[in-house]
């Protein structure tokens, strides 16, 4: 919200006499009147304007697209489309402006107003890389000895790939297990049974199991 407040202050100086409203963590506005005003909102906190906005300006695209998240691009696309839909129709003078590199796929999809094209492209790339939803991932996070113990007792599918380890918080590590989408249930059963074995042995060190985590590394 600090960035939004600073943006509101700068706009207030640039457009003296025009009311500036903010919507975000400190206070979320549901609606704003259709009178002339500038509305600065954080993603997901955009109020509905009576009669629609005359213009929607999408800023700080790099902050959304550069997140270390497998779904960063699709989440950016969702937020942009939701915000852009608050503008008036083009026939009524509504405009949507995005400040971003025009060659990026989410930007191209927004300019074309074609989320289907973006989804198809994103799915093709994930198939090529072996990422969800084309494949299924399970991350195992915990102390090294605990994760190794779980993997040792797990009867994993023969097609399972074990990737890692990668550092996690404090003295923990993460291992990733990948299988084709059609073998996901088999992987889930194997890990569930392995967790049961560790529980029966009264293992003291926990292992966090996540299916298709947003952050793979």
From TrEMBL:
GO terms for molecular function: 3'-5' DNA helicase activity; ATP binding; DNA binding. Keywords: ATP-binding, DNA-binding, Nucleotide-binding. It comes from the Bacteria. One of its GO terms (biological process) is double-strand break repair. This is Primosome assembly protein PriA. It comes from Winogradskya consettensis. The lineage of its organism: Bacteria, Bacillati, Actinomycetota, Actinomycetes, Micromonosporales.
